[in-house]
Amino acid sequence: MLDTTPLTSAVDHFADRLRAAPQSRLQRGAAAEALALARELSLRAQRLEDPEAAPREMPDAGMFAAADQITVAARDLALVLKDEGQLAEAVTLVAEAQNRAGV
C-alpha cells in the first residue's frame, strides 16, 4: 500500500494556513487558488477511479470552505493513487498552489 502521508501532510498544512488567513487574503485570490487545486485533485481522483466516467466538477462552496474542499479532494485522491510518481505530482501541485495563494 502506498504511503500517502506526504500528500495529506502538505494539504493539512495548506488548509491550516487558509483557515488562519484573514478574509482579505482569501478574497485576493487564496481561496480561488485553493478551489482550483481542489478541483484538480478531485478530477485526478475521478480519472483514476473510473476513467470511463464523465468527471464532475467540484462546486464553489465559498471562500470559507476552500480549506475543507482541498482536504476532501486530497483524501479522495490519496485513496486511489497507484504509484510514487502520481503521489509526487500531487504533492507538487499542492506546494505550487500554496505558493501562488501566498499563505
Structural features, described:
The chain has 103 residues and is mostly helical. The chain has one domain (4-101). It has four helices and no strands. It has helices at residues 5-20, 23-49, 66-80, 84-101. Helix 1 (5-20) packs parallel to helix 4 and helix 2 runs antiparallel to helix 4 (84-101). 36% of the residues are buried. The model has no long low-confidence stretch (mean pLDDT 97).
What characteristics describe this protein?
globular, 103 residues, 4 helices
Coarse structural class: mainly alpha
Q: Roughly what percent helix?
A: over 70%
| Domains, number | 1
| Strand content range | under 5%
Biggest sheet details: none
How far apart are the first and last residues' alpha carbons, in Å? 32 Å
- Overall mean pLDDT score? 97
Instruction: Provide the low-confidence segments as ranges.
Output: none
Which helices and strands occur, and which strands form pairs?
Elements: H1 5-20, H2 23-49, H3 66-80, H4 84-101
In brief:
The protein has 103 residues and is mainly alpha-helical. It has four helices and no strands.
